[in-house]
Amino acid sequence: MANFEHAVDDPKRVNLSDNIPAAGAPVKHTPESSVPVRDAGCVIPSFAAASELLSTPYSCLVLNSHRRHIALAPLYLNKKKTGIQEELDAELLKFSQSLNGVLLAYDNIRILGRHGDIYDDSGYIHMDIEANFIEFQPKKGQKLLGKVNKLGVSHVGCLVHGCFNASIPKPNLVSIETWRDAGPMVGSELEFKVIALDADAAGVLLIRGQLDRTRVQELLAISESSESSVPTGQPEPQEAEPSTEPTQEASDDTPRKKKKKKKKD
Questions:
Q1: In sequence order, which ranges of 10-136 are alpha helices (DSSP H)?
Q2: Domain ranges across the chain
Q3: CATH number of 143-226
């Protein structure tokens, strides 16, 4: 690798100081370069909005500072700031093994070093950066708070932090009628416990949860009370009055008088 003094003449090195702040200087994440909407109904929060969620109950959000390696395409040679932001925007709301969670927001990007490297003949500019990342890191057994957006016969769907889908099945002992009438409603907040986490091939996090035990007991009590109660507005059955008319069986049992036959003279 070339020395610092000969870096300008080295075709494998790219000077980053022309269009990017000096080493350690922050790159401001501008709203224009962010991706505000990932899909319908999901709005990615800004770094300021995500920072406010850090202290909310059951947020499972953490703030960390990480170093990252970035490979920029040649078209970003004169607009490295835009290239770095687009690289990070593409990773938002995707599960990352290195982060052990999902990237929700980032800010305060700092480029480490004065030069980027070009390896072989690929043309990509390799550099190291450091930034502040807010990550969503739920774990099995933890509690989350979501907003119900879907209702089903056997489950409800909700959004956590307005971005992450969670599915909560109906408890087995709760009747369908009670689940429909007294269960979670669209727009209401729902507290649940994480029982499984998974991610698909695209990196979309899938959360499966279960209702809190107290909430399940409430639904069971409602279900039992509705089954044991007598429906109102229906007349009670009246006892049949004894009939005074003789029945056919009684008439059959009554002994009949025999007629006397007259003797012929």
A1: 47-53, 80-89
A2: 4-136, 143-226
A3: 2.40.50.140
